[in-house]
Amino acid sequence: MYYLSVGVLVPSLIGLAFVLPLLGMIIKNIKFFHAYASAASLYALVVAAYNFSIVVKEGVKAYPFGGWWPPIGISYELDEVNSLIALLTASVMFLITLYSAWYIRDLKDAPYYYTLLLGLEVGMLGCIYTGDAFNLFVMLEVMSISAYALVGFYRNKPEAVEAAIKYGLFGAVATTLYFIGLVFIYASFGTLNMADLTNKVTLFWGYDLVSGYYYGQVYAATAIALALSLWAFTFKSAVFPNHFWLPDAHPEAPTPVSAALSGLVVNVGVYATFRFLYTIFNPFSAVSGLRDLILLVTLVLGLASGLIGALMMAVQDDIKRLLAYSTISHIGLVLVGLSIGSSLLSKPGSQAFVDGLTGAFYHLINHSLGKSLLFLTAGVIIYAAGGTRRLDELGGVARRNPLLGAALIIGVLQLLGIPPFGGFFSKYLLYASYLEAGAPYISVIINVISAISLLGYVRLLYAALFTTPKREFVRASALPTIILLILSVACLITGILSPIMSEWLRRFVEATTSRDGILNYWLQGYLIFWGR
Amino acid sequence: MSELNTFLFNILLFSLFFNVGISLYGIFARPSLIKKIIALTIFSDTANVLAIAVGYRGWPSPSQPPIPPVITTTEPSIDDLTWFARQAVDPLPQALVLTAIVIGLAVTLFLVFLTLQVYRLYGTTDVRRVARLRG
User: Fold this and answer.
1) What value of ipTM does the predicted structure carry?
2) Is the CB of B133 inside 8 Å of chain A's CB atoms?
3) In the structure, how many helices (H) and strands (E) does chain A have?
């Protein structure tokens, strides 16, 4: 039994996105496009929420496209973790689309902007939903091309064009490297379906008749494929040393897009890393030795990008650039949490293992909410400060508008990890998991990263709140204020409900990464279609 | 004959990886944006040729050269299908390559447009001078 809603979301949203330029030729009223895009992303939110509820109620769900059963056709497969991330993506994207209606209120190019924004959402949802490694490549490219174009959206601004070409050129290299990795996977395993690959790597049931036997040097090919695909994923999530494009690209985009890029697009790389290292090449598989090595590398890279992001934050003069470096730091922390699964640190299913992964996903959610809140607040602040992005010219604009100031403080506290907010509890879980795993020095480094990042956040708060206001009071309109309020409340909720949230996440992580969970991923994604 | 086949196959693989090296050098080290884009297309084409080469199952086997994945009989029997499945090259990498080419076209077009825009705004396509002009 499969649900249509699992498969229908991404293709229908692509259709809704690409109708927009045509409509732009007929309809000249910009308001229509604001309403249209908001309705489309509301639709995505509703379907994503429905899918999430299905998965929570009934477990893993797969959808074979065109009636071609996996591994022959492309299938989408939803388990607890990816339906949750998709729900997060769709809800934050809905708020960002609403905010865009205020941000680009008199822009002539609104249809094109919304085409790209919806394309970005389609790409992200496709990457998250997909159960096919090649479809992941296609969706990664859909997401990336939208992201490149959105970074260079102000095409007459030299900095924006330069940032976009840097991002685009190296992003194309990264995705092509992932394609080469896929060629290696296909050459040795004879399949690209994730559920089928999981079976072939883990040997639940030997090999299967549809996609044949193994070919050639499977172990070496897996090593090359994993190295290449992890390179691509860490590029997409801007982990050191592939972070160089992010501080240029994210600030130059229109502010709602910066929020989407910094809060959501980087999640996709982290999610793909999780899918590769915990489902396909899982801890119970025949390549667990290789996996340990790669998780060690991601641990070191995560710590390095956490430190570098936190250090570079302290020396920035540009409010959006500061927030972009903060993204690098936080994604580093999430990757550190994901690296707990190496057998050198913890056994699968142990306290440290589950805590680390729970902490990683909890931090991912907290960071998405907090960072999109901060970027959207920064958009209003920049507007109120007369278009400048320099910290020393902001001149305490948030002081004149208490709601804006409150949103800024809540966002900073969320990311910094101060108790009533979610950031504290997720950082605590990461910290506790490495203590439990017997690696206290890594816990200490996590704390050091938080402490260093305090410098940058204090500069931000000082510039926006504590300097004497120089300008006239500019009243922010109602729409962005309401969106900032919603996001602030969401940040507060992730903190206050942290016992419930972490319990849920722990259940999801256990259901996804246990041996039974991985077996179930294969059964539901592959065998169920052939077993009748 | 089989040694010759192995030799040719190895030359193919070697030249593909050599090509990857050259094109990555071109992308990362050449200063001109146009040359970077040319190197990028070489890189993605190399990846595509690699995928096509992977599709040649059982190659090199001089006695049974692979056939195109097209069934020529209109109403094939089971025997025809078995023979076909043993002989034909794998069509899936070709489908993958088709998709990758289309995506590569979109990316290349976009990058070329951006390069044009860089030239309009900075008056040069040399990344060193662009970085200096940006200040």
Assistant:
1) 0.92
2) yes
3) 23, 2
